[in-house]
Amino acid sequence: MRKVALIVAIAVALVVVAYINREKRGSSLEHFHDPPIFKEGLARKGDGEKIGFINEKRDYVIKPQFDDAFPFDEGLAAVKIGSKWGFVDRNGKLVIEPQFESVGSFHEGLAKVWVNGKVGFLNKNGSIVIEPKFNDSGGFSEGLAAVQVGIKWGYIDKTGHIVIPLQFDDQSNFEGGKAKVRLNGKEIQIDNTGRTLSLQQKQVFVPQ
Q1: Of 116, 35, 44, 118, nearest to 80 (Cα)?
Q2: Residue 177 — φ and ψ, nearest 5°?
Q3: Radius of gyration of the chain (CA)
Q4: What 3-state class would DSSP assign to 107?
Q5: Which of 136, 145, 130 minimizes the C-alpha distance to 122?
Q6: Who contacts 122 (Cβ-Cβ below 8 Å, separation ≥6)?
Q7: 59-116: pLDDT as tens digits
Q8: Residue ranges of domains in the chain
Q9: What pLDDT, on the 0 to 100 scale, is given for residue 10?
Q10: pLDDT interval class at 142 (50, 70, 90)
Q11: For residues 94 and 87, what is the distance between their CA atoms, to the nearest angstrom?
């Protein structure tokens, strides 16, 4: 009897685990957040297989058709079809065809894109305006974006020129003309010329 009870218990446990896993796989597409998080009046929502966008009335305004998607920023949302990423407008129209290995959202009119394993920047017309040559990058903030070459970080302007040399171990976006970076294992604060500023109080460094 004990052996039969043990077999039954194991079978029940396996069924429960399978159900939980199925629910997790479904919930990753169906809900994202509950309640949904809206940006620019729209939120991502899945139907269990594909992802679309709903309005604040919870009605689909862009039907589920994407394999993945980012929230809207500056009027466009990054979407994945198959293995490639592109961008749609608020009507669901593909304005930049899926062609990139990965992308970021638009910030200050530019979005980072991966081409052949390197990062560059794209404008809203779909033109690459900064050649993909970086290992990684942040998004643009206050006219500057952090970029990584090798293991070091620096900052470029919107023409792609490095205006703060590649020297940092880690970085953050500029806010109010200042950014926190790590140099030689120490956290410091710099201005938008790269000049070191003194930290008025100890702050926890959070990589972007």
Answers
A1: 44
A2: 80, 5
A3: 22
A4: strand
A5: 130
A6: 96, 103, 110, 111, 112, 113, 128, 129
A7: 999 999 999 999 999 999 999 999 999 999 999 999 999 999 999 999 999 999 999 9
A8: 107-208
A9: 52
A10: very high
A11: 6
